[in-house]
Structure formats: structure tokens, C-alpha cells
Amino acid sequence: MTAAVPVARPRGQWLSTLARQRELSLVAILILLGGLVTLTAPQFLTVANISQVAVLASVIAVAAVGEALVVITRNVDLSVEATIGLVAYGVARVLELHALDAAGAIVLGLGLGLVLGMINGLIVTLFRVPAIVATLGTLSIFRGVDYLIAGSHQVPLAGLPEGFTDAARDTFFGIPYFVLVAVVVVAIGSVILRSTRFGRQLYAVGSNPEAAAILGIPSRMVVFTAFSLCGLLAGAAGVLWVMEFGTINGTSATGVVLAVVAAVVVGGVNIFGGSGTLAGAALGALFLGFIANALILVGLSQFWLQAIYGVVILVAVTADAFILRRLKRANKRSGSR
Amino acid sequence: MAPVKGQPAWTRLVARWETLLVVALAGLVVLGTSLSPFFLTLGNFSNLIAALMEVAIMALAMTLIIVAGEIDLSVESMAGLASAILGFLWAAGVPLEAGIPIVLAVGALGGLMNGLLVARFGLPSLVVTLGTLALFRGLALIVLGPRGVSDFPPAFTQLGFGHVAGTLIPWPFVIFIGLALLLGIVLHRTWIGRHIYAIGKNTGAARFSGLRVTRIRVSLFVLSGLIAALAGIILTSRLSSARADAGAGMTLTVVTVVLLGGVNIFGGSGTIPGVVLAVLSVAVMQNALRLASVTVEVQSIALGLLLILSVVIPTFAHQAKSAVDRVRGGRPPPADSVPHGERALP
Amino acid sequence: MKLRSMGRAIALATIATVMFAACSTGSTPSPAGASTAPSGAAGKITVGYLPKDIVNQYFAAAKTGVDKGAAETGSAVIQVGPNEAKADLQIPFITDLTTQKVNAIIISADGKDEVAPALKAAMAQGIKVVGFDSSPAVGAYNVFVNQVDFSGVGVNLADWACELAPNCTGDIAILSAAATATNQNEWIALMKTTLATDKYKGLKLVDTVYGDDDATKSTTQAQALLTKYPNLKVIVAPTTVGILAAAQVVKQAGKSATVKVTGLGFPNDMKPFVKDGTSPVFGLWSVPDLGYLSYQVAAKLVSGEITGKEGETFTVKGLNGDKPYTIGKDSVVILGPAFRFDSTNVDQFNF
Known about the structure:
The structure holds three protein chains of three kinds.
Chain A: H1 8-40, H2 47-72, H3 80-96, H4 102-125, H5 131-150, E1 154-155, E2 171-172, E3 175-176, H6 177-195, H7 197-207, H8 209-214, H9 219-245, E4 248-249, H10 256-266, H11 278-298, H12 304-333
Helix pairs in contact in A: 1-11, 2-6, 2-9, 2-10, 2-11, 3-4, 3-5, 3-9, 4-5, 4-9, 6-7, 7-9, 10-11, 10-12
Chain B: H1 9-15, H2 17-35, H3 42-50, H4 53-67, H5 75-91, H6 96-120, H7 125-144, E1 148-149, H8 154-161, H9 171-189, H10 191-201, H11 203-208, H12 213-239, E2 242-243, H13 250-260, H14 272-291, H15 296-328
Antiparallel strand pairs in B: 1-2
Chain C: H1 2-25, E1 46-50, H2 57-73, E2 76-79, H3 87-99, E3 104-107, H4 116-124, E4 128-132, E5 143-146, H5 150-164, E6 170-176, H6 182-195, E7 203-210, H7 215-228, E8 232-237, H8 240-252, E9 260-263, H9 267-275, E10 281-284, H10 287-303, E11 313-314, E12 325-326, E13 332-334, E14 339-342
Parallel strand pairs in C: 1-2, 1-3, 3-4, 4-5, 5-13, 6-7, 6-8, 8-9
Antiparallel strand pairs in C: 10-14, 11-12
């Protein structure tokens, strides 16, 4: 396996070590947290509770994996919540109208998510609009389209086919299906990132766009693909959303973007681009999910959740900047510049 | 956008973003009048303007921040925190004369936090203010919970909802114009303004030239926080209700208005008059659409499109101009007029 | 620099022009009555319908009643409203309806004080304001059509909780709508007063959570209740969105035998949950009738038949057994008592 970007190799080693450290520390904190919470509220450690948290976290995790792909390229996608909401409504409505069966609706949802992601990709790469502006704009547009299509209609749980929402509660040898879906998504994504040229290009573009361009990497195509995949995964999250919540209207999934971005940032995907793992993003989602759950059980008002998201993002970013500065100094010393 | 040599002054004026806005604004006013006979009544104008004023004053502060090459996403949450603290203090019996200064101080402190994290610790403002977007909102929820405080004295609600005596000009509009004049003078006529542009164009060069980059950036964030708090106070007054979720969703509109006003998202260019025009245009557009019974959803789509177009159009215009220049056989445009967005995009 | 100052001059000139134009062409708002749209031929009027939000199916049901009333005289109904049940989002719609000079506004307020100034401004222009479901502040409406007697509902909710908890004993929790919703807050307050009496001393209210009438939020709140209070016996949800979410959550958690759900719900929504035992008892009233009554009150205010003063009476054919309604204190009219649904009668209803 030849490294496509020579400057990435020494840094790559550093990064993968630190990334693993991040994942390990997340797991460690989770276990510690779990222990503390169980002392105050034994309901925490029940299978029912952990399953429920894991299921909810899986939905966010799937979207977070997509977001991570975009962030690795040094961009951001703020429109994911609108994509989730629009896909969720589309899938629910199509099922309610009996226009498609479950499998068809799922394919529709994924396809819609992909298209929305491609729109984002086009605006960023073709029209050269910075990602923050582009996705702020599409956040508004997609949500507006969602409201427009939904109007005042709400698809009730009863409008969905029998058993469609059971997927959120069914398990496979004790592990909820949703968790398996998230694990599979992470696994496939990680394989792509680690073993394909596209994966290496993704990291290259994020860590040093100028160098990537000089080396002949088709940066715009890479970024476009990243956004498209992000949309696809947001669409998947939208399908999962329908299964989890059942009742869907135009406002569904409002406010989710903060959780997704927080998950990515906490999970060690560096906001400066060029590093981070999908597993980290998924773990980040799980971590935040457990914090939310712990809050409820310990009796803290749920209002602390927003503040905690904020603190968590700030801490993660500070840590990332710190790491990056160390890396730069280390690179300079080792003379690989 | 630096002028290209050899073009007559009037074409440069016409090609300016602000001129485009004036034309757009005039067009929108015509559109509005044709849509509804009530459009140009003073009463309607008053309503039209009043609801957008919190966004408008935050946009003024945001202009300076974006020109300096940063961004502050946390403004809407600081407005909410301001509202929550004001309500909390009022409900606890603290008189507004004390409550308002306390809230403004909190705004400045929040801005200071943003500023220090960005300017002293070198963290990217996008993510820092995303974090404080959540943090401030969270603090607002912790302070006030889900309840609303609404028994404010009429003298206070007059600030947001009332008008200057004898006219129908809403007080918040007066505050907005005053602030626009103040910040306009600072940005366009003082050395501070020149430094802000320099920092936005090329931070490294600015630092090497001895400009107090850190100090200015921190001050801008403090200003942004302070004004966001002021916006929160005005919002509380206008609605005669303090709530922790006040101002939710405003950041998008603020950024849209600023970019629509011709401010370059990467920093280094943009004007206050442009943003003022953009505020008026958005207010007129929203009002015209509502009177035409265009639904909120379509308005939301329009706003998003507006945001994207406000960045796409200058880029295309510049590319078109370069192409035309090249065809004419003239010299290629000077380096500093190339939109330096290239550095962030692959 | 010259261009910059030209640019600024243009901007200032524009502002001045717009304001001057507004001053000279505009007509200042005229005093009450004179400028509202004509209520012309045989009571044809235009009514603005502004619910808490336009997604909540409760208000869609109420609107069918409003539409029915309007159809009788060929009047027009304009529905406007936000996507989220937030008071500050309702205000622009009120001012727009005012500018459009509708004859009357029928509104369910997300927050009683927030909407008051705009409503008062509308009333100053001669527009009649009819509150329904959730009241604006006193003085900001001509008549408030209360769907149910508050104290009656408060007792009902306590009674149903008592009936569903084994031996009227155990933990109960409330899942409400928005924390600022006038109506829910009144019902809850009266329910708490009732719970304080002897008969209910076995019941312990452990928590009140808010689902904001949002399906997703109500679902997560209900799940949180189940997680946090393992001994929970009854969830009381005085909101049609909340009761449905809670029933679904309990059913899907497989806890229908131990945790019961009650409150205010639509029969069509709750039928399956009555059948499977999750929600054996709940209540409501005829929501379409609420809309119909609200429209009739608006029409009567516009025509001058009533003014909203306490003591006035009027009759609406088809409602209240054709007996007259009396306007009570604070200009409130009550639709009627709450109606209890259970396995014996829920199938007879279709709304």
C-alpha cells in the first residue's frame, strides 16, 4: 500500500495513536460514568435502559458518521437535521399513502438523502460557496420544503404498516437491530477510509488542501462525494427516525444538528480536518446519549443537556487544537516539512 | 472588491453591491405595493421594521466580526440568556434599573469568553461559537427553565413595542439607526476600522505590521456579546415576555442579512450601509411575502436561497469580470481582488 | 473614500425616501370600527384562524367546525399560524391579519401575555378577537370560548388517575404541552388542588414534564418518565399530542399492564389503547363543536348581536341543546362539560 501523500505518513502514525487514545478515553469515561450513575440510580444498568439509550444513540451515530466524512475534509454540514426531517416525513407519508411498501420506502428515503447531500456537494464544489454558508442555506431550504410538503399534516403511528416501527425495539440475540445497523455502517465506512484511495484522499484534502491540489488529487470530486455520502447517511438516519418515533410531521428532527456535530467533535474528528475516525464519531454519539440518560436518572433537569453539549464541544475543540499544535511542533522537529 | 484600472468611476459605482441592493429594495417596495394596498401605510412600515430590529442590531455587530475574518454563531443564544436572566431577576424582585446593566455585563462576559478562546487560544471561531451557542442556551434554560416571566411594567414594554412620541417610528429602529451610525463611523472612518479590514484580509501580515490583532478580535467578540444581550432585552420588551428559548433561529437570519449586505464571508471587505440596506430589503421582502399570503415555509426557503445566492453572485460576477477582462486583452486583475476563498476550498 | 461616502449617502437617502413616502401616502390607523372590512351581505365576513400551531391535529379538528360555521353564510376563513407552538411566532400573524383588516380573529394563544399587545392593537382597529382553547390575557379578547369548565376538568383528571391506579395509590406523573400554555396550566393547577384532598391521598405526583405538543419531544419525555420512575402507575396527559405519545411509549415498552395512561385524547387516536388496556379511561369534548361555537361567537360580535359583556346571552342552533349560552366573568363562554370515554362508548365516536 503506497501512501498517496508522503507528508501524511509520519503524521498519520501520530494521528492514529492519538485517535485511538481518544476512543479509549471515551470508553473509559463511559464506564466510569456508568458506575457513578448506577450508584445513584440502579435503573441505569438494566438491559431495558441501556438498550433504549443505545437505540436512540444509534440514530444519531449513523448521521454522525456521515458528518464525520464531511468534517474530515475540513468542511461542515449543518443541514443534516433538515435532511433527516425531510426524509422521515417523505418515508412516513409514502407509507401512509400505501404508495410503496416498506422496502421501497426505505430505498426512497436513502435516495432522497443522497440527492440532498449531492445538492450540498454541488453548492460547495461547483459554486464554491463555503460549506458553512451553503449548509446554513440548505438547512433553511430543506426545512422549508419539509414544512411545505407536510403542511399541517401529521403521519400518525397508526398510518404506518404493521410492524414497521418494531425494528426499533427488536433485537438480534439481545442486541438491538439499530445498534447493529450503526456498527455495520461504521465498519463499512472505516474499511473504505482505511483501505481505499478515496479514503486516503479524504484525509489528504482535509489536512492540506493546497498540497492535495498540487499532488493532483481531484479535491472537488472528493468533497462532493463526502457531502453526498453525508446526505445518504442522514437519509438512513431519517428512516431510522420513523421507526423509532412513529409519529412524523414537518417539524420532526428539529434541533438534532447540535447533537450530531457534538458527537463528531467529541468523537475525536478534528475540526481542522484531516484526522479522526468514524468509530470515534459513533462513540461520541453513544457518549452523549448516555450523558443525556444519566442526567434524567440522576434527577438533574434535562435543561442541563444543552449546556453540557456546549461544554463538551468546547473541551473537545481545545483538546484538538492542543493536539494539532503539538503535532506541528513535532513535525517541524522531525524535519519532515 | 478592488476596482480595476481603466474603468470610469460611474461603472464602479453601478457595479457596487450596495447599488444592487438599492435597486432590489426599490423593486421590493414596488412589489409590496402591488400586492397589497396596505403596504405603504405608516402602520405597516412600523410593523415591518419592528420585528426585525433585534436581528438588525446583531447584524451590525456581526458585520464587524465577519469583516475581521471570524464568525459568531452564539448571538441567538446570548439573546436568550439575556432574556432569561432579565426575567429571572425581575421575578426575584430586582428592579429593571439594576437588571438591565447586569444582563449587558453578562453579554460582554460571554463575548469575552468567545474572544479569548478564539483570539488567545487560537481556536476556530466556527466551532467555539457553535459550542457557546449550545452553552449559553443551556445556561438560559438552567436559569429560567421552561417558564416565562411576563408581568413587566408598561414603561419597559414600551421600549420594544412602543414608538417615539408622536410618530410611528419604533424605538428599536431608533436604536438600530444610532448603532448603525456609530459602528459605520468606527468601521469606515477610524483607524480601528482600517485595522479590522486588515486583520480580515491577512491576519499574519496584520500581526507582523504591529496591529493589536488579539486585542481587536477580543473586543469585537465582546461587542457582539454585548449587542446580542441588548437584542435580548429588546426582544423581551417587545414580547413583554422573558423566555429561555427567546431568539431561537435568529443566527441564520443575522448571517444571511450580513452576507446579503455584501460582506465577504472570508473577511476583509463589506460595509455597514450595505448591511443596513440588506436589513431593509429583508424586512420589506418578508412583509411583502406575508401580505401576499406566502407561507412561512416558502419564506424560509427564500431566505436560504438568498443566503446562498448572496455568495454565489459575487463569485460569478467576479469570474465573469475576469473573463471579460481577459477577452479585452487587458491586464489580469490585481492579486488582492481575487476572492481569497480559494485557501479554504480544495 | 469618495465612493464609500457615496454609497453611504445612497443608503441614507433611501431610508429617508422610504420613510417620507410612508409618511405622506399612508393613512394613520383610524379609530375603532371605521376601517374594518365591510361585513356586507347577510353576514359575509372574513375571519382569521390562528391556532397554537398549524401541525397539531387538535386544531385541524376545531377548524372543521369553524369552516362549517363560515360555510353557512359564505364567509371566508384564513388559517395562519406557526409550525411550532411559540407565542412570539404568533405575533407577526396577528399584526398581518390586522393589516389585512379581517373582521375577526379566532386565536388559541401560545402565551397569554406575549400576544396581548398585538391583539389589543387589533381590537383598537375594530377587529373582534375571540380566544378559544387557550386564552390570551384578560382585556386582549372580546370573548373567550372555553372548551370546558376548568375546575371540572381538574377534578376529572384527578378522578381518572385515581380510577386507574390500583387502590387509588401510587406514583403518577403529568405530561403536559408547553410550559406556558394557559389552558394546560389551569387544568394542572386545579388537578393539584383536587389531589390535595383526602380521597386522593394515596396518589403521589412525582413529576410534571413538558412535551411542547411536539410528538417527538412528548415521546422522549414519556420514555424518560418510565425510565426515571420505575414505580410509576399512571401518566396523566392533558393534551391530545401527549396522551397519544405516552400511550404509544407504554405499549411499546410492554408496560400496559402496570402503567396506565389517561388525560385528554381523541377517540380515534385512543381506540386501540382502550382495547389493549393501556388507556382504559380518558376524556375530551367535541372539538369540532368548539370551532363551530367560536365562529358563531365571532360572527355575533361582528354583527353587534353581542358585545362580550358579562351577563349577555345568545343561542346557537345545534349546540347546547339549543339552550342559550351565558357570557360569564371575564367574558368567558363555556362549551360544556368534559366527556368521558371508555370501552363502553369509545367506538361510537369518530373524531
